[in-house]
Amino acid sequence: MKHEQKMEGTQLKAVIYCRVSSTKQKLDGGGLESQEQRCRAYAETQGYEVEAVFPDDASGGGDFMKRPGMVALLSYLDAQPDKNYVVIFDDLKRFARETEMHIKLRQAFKARGALVECLNFKFEDTPEGKFIETIIAAQGELEREQNRRQVMQKMKARVENGFWVFRAPIGYKYVSAKGGGGKVLVPDEPLASTVREALEGFANGRFASQAEVQRFFERCPHFPKDFPDGRLRPMTVSRLLKKVVYAGYVEAPKWGVSVRKGEHEGLISFETFERVQEALAGRARPAARKDFNEDFPLRGFVHCDDCGKPMTACWSKGCRKHYAYYLCDTRGCPSKRKSIPRAKVEDGFADILKAMQPTKQLFTLARVMFEDAWNARLQSVTASQGEIKRQLKAVEKQIESLLDRIVEANSQAVISAYETRLAKLEREKFVLTEKEASGLPPKGRLEEFIELSLRFLASPWNIYKNGDHATRQTVLRLAFVEPLQYSRNQGYRTPEISFPFKVLEGISGAKKQMVLLERIELSTSPLPRECSTSELQQPAVFQIANSGVAPIQAGSGKAL
Predict the structure, then answer these.
(1) With 60 as the cut, is the pLDDT of residue 511 above it?
(2) Among the listed residues 198, 200, 225, 223, the one whose alpha carbon sits nearest the alpha carbon of residue 212
């Protein structure tokens, strides 16, 4: 049926609507351009003047008012109610792929006085035409639902086989698998290293809160940001910390697919991932300051000696310039609002950190101690491999027992409890399997770890002085067990340093001790026994000092 305007010989105005189902089809397939070309050719043969083209790259399912192109088209018609338009589609499937939405969209165009014409279907305003139109719309909906079901089934099957099928997480990218078989995740550098550092840092306490992880990401220029000003949403960090895909595993809870080993390389171990989840659930860590200021790196770490609360800091405006101060702002504290110059607080802290730096000779001794501790640890790991295997078999036995109980159980509450316990055992099995497979660390790991540790022990002050705010906060946590107490009148109290520095301090301050040489024969009697060699009747003294370790014969002062 034609408009009265065309019957009178007036050229009708037309608008074209084109749609593809995804942005990928829009960029790669050339679908929008080919649709527009065919619709323009049709309008020319019908004598229509095309005024505008409205493209969309949204799926055909759901509310058509959620398609930007369709909303713009309807708004265009509303803005010119005195004109009658013909809306041209390439195919009926581009109109709508749900029967309900198809009927509503037809009514929306009818209310605006617009005709609808399709290149592959002829609309007829008759009972038979409406029936056929409804059947074809229902057929399109059926195809869409079947398509969706088929895609979801394939995606679920791939997840069950250990493949990640969703959008690649930050730090990964998709590549075609060797020999075909779809795409797999591979680490995407340098993002992968950044994400690994953040996850491991949160697990071992380097980052005390999600806010610190967020600031770490915001300082990385290559990390994708949520806002133009370089900020991230807190939810972005929270979701990243909870993704098991970074441990080399996959899951799809909405499809009923539990955690399982993935076919991609993990950035962290599953044990590290579990520590991250425990930190997120435990909420035992103190909240990080949102108003951190690099001008005051000790704010929050130095506590007032009078009340024990963290000291704050600020800039104070003087007659000619601004002055930096630390102060306690706790109500009822004798030192409340009594400012302490920043230089006094930070210079005192610098003296403490410099005093913790060991001498060259003591540093050499520390290296030997690290190597001995590493070798002892290797022996311990070797001995524990058998215990890990035993624990793994015990967990597997418990899992089999729970599966049998679930099959026999009739109560839904009991089944749910069994499933919860089963999920915990599965995660425990992952950790044990990972430990068993890892075995002994390679020889190169000793140099890798010992160099990093010794570099910190050798020069904590230099690392603190030359580092950024995050590095300085890390030095504070590694060097001291507890926050420093500062007295307004007496300065710093004795700090509680961390264990490695405490050991070095104990060695450097050790006193002489009388130690018998191995050649001396010890008596089984509780009474002292003389040695068979006269020159060995004198005990030896091992003097451990900053100059090194040397056995010295008592009374002679000469090294043996």
Answers:
(1) no
(2) 198
